[in-house]
User: Fold this.
Amino acid sequence: MEITTANPTFKLELTSSPHVHSRWSTKQAMWFVVLALIPALISAVIFFGPYQLLIILTSVLFCAATEFAVKKIRKRKITVDDGSAIITGLLLGLILPPNFSLSSTAIGAVFAIAIGKEIFGGLGYNIFNPALIGRAFLQAAFPVAITTWTQPSYAVDTVTSATPLAAFKFDKVVTSIEPMFLGNVGGSLGETSALAILIGGIFLIIIGVVNYRIPLAMILGMILFAGIFWIIDPVKYPNPLFQLFAGGFLFGTFFMATDWVTSPITSKGMWVFGFGIALLVFLIRVFGGLPEGVMYAILIMNSIVPIINRYTRPRIFGEAK
Assistant:
């Protein structure tokens, strides 16, 4: 777009989100997220074995290849080197169960990029988090395989077992905090170790890639909602720490909900978004038929981000009511 006045011509570049408000470019920020995911990746290999690297590598390769192919078909600029497809592949791989089929992983990766991202126009245009779209598709297509959990190698035996959330949901068994904090429990590859997730998430907040408001709102919201019900009936409802460390809540808090494209851009909107996700996760876990609800909560809140942005935007100085 060009604006010609009496002065020399000024060129304005019109681009889609994400609009960076920090010292990092979009490309730099993407690769910082890749770096922040390394602790979770290491944790997955330590607790579930080296085969998990093949799952994550398959996810990354097929995400990158799908983006490359779609860009070629549409005759658009190849953008694989910006790191966004790599992140989608890593995130998708890390939210899959241990020892998941490589062919199914590839299908999920293709769906995540082609339908979750490129069908909307590519980076900056997608409405929903692509990795969660891929995971949702796999859950619908392969419901048994996607919910088959393997105990960590350091457990008593390596047989299929319930996750902490499933154990509480169906058997009222509360897993102790220590194994959930370290990662020695059943669950998705990158979601079991709260320690690894916190290392990567806090790193992103410190360097300014992730805004602290969404993670803080989600954590405070879960503590609030879980705390109220726990005080009412500590036998029927688990304590807030259990709700924070169990399942994919922390992983979703730092790596899924904070996606620049699919989260609000206003400060107030970030608080609304974070509290909304926490509330939905808690309601699904406690009153729904599923033991986990992070994926659905984030996708639901993704869908109303435009409304949140609209009604939480700051007033322009001097603007009339």
